[in-house]
Structures are given as structure tokens and as C-alpha cells.
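[audit] Reproducing an earlier prediction to check determinism. Same input, same settings, fresh worker. If the C-alpha cells differ from the archived copy the diff job will pick it up downstream; this log only records the rerun itself.
[audit] input (142 residues):
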Amino acid sequence: MQDQHLFDCIECGCCSYVCPAHIPLVQYFRYAKAESWAKEREKHQADQARLRHEAKVARLQRQEEERKAKLRKRKEDLESGASGGITSADEAKKAAIEAAIQRAAAKKAALGAGAQTPDQPSPAQARSPEGAGDQVGRESGA
């Protein structure tokens, strides 16, 4: 339609007025212009859909490559961990356990040293409420 210069028409209606066959030329031109615009709109929508599809395919390929690389890295880490024996996670866990054992031993040693001084109460006395010992003494005295 572009090559027929259809869009040069300003739809003034002069051609319909002078047409001896009384052909509604302006209405035909309007219809043809609307069809041309619809085709251009469909072509634009198809181009946009094609671009979206290409972007989606590229994104899916990238995600698949990233997933494969992640799996490959995890497999290499497992293989290197198996050949090396203990992994860093196991070492960290064992170190945390050892530190907890050392803290418990230090706490026992501190409690043992504290029991030798007469000013400090024993651990059993420290856990009991202060008034409990006094009440027992009063009951036996009464």
C-alpha cells in the first residue's frame, strides 16, 4: 500500500464527488489505510514477541550453563575433599567441639579452685535459694 501512495490521500472527498460511477473511494481508502496499519501493528507485535523469545532462550541457556558449572564445581570439591580426607567443614566442627571441651574443663578447674576458699559458697549452696537454709534451722530450733 505504501508504494501506491495511499497515504498521500488526505480524505477530503473530492474524488468521490467527481466520480461518475459514484464509487465510495474515500471509504475504500480509509479501509485500506486501516488494514495497512493493522498489518504494521501485527508485524511490530511479532517482532517484539520474537525478541522476547530470543531473550528467554538466551536466559535459559545462561541459567543452564550456570547450573552445570555449579554442579561441576561441587563435584570437584567433593572429589578433592575425598582425596584430601577431612574437609574444612569437618575440621571446623571438630575444632568447635574441642573448644567446648576446653571451656568445660576450665570451668571445672575454676569451680574446683573456688571450693577451697571458705568465703565463697559451694556450687550446691549457690544454686539453692538463700532463705531455704535459714528455714531449716528455724524449724529444728522450734
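[audit] rerun output stored. Observation attached for the diff report: The chain has one domain: 2-103.
[audit] end
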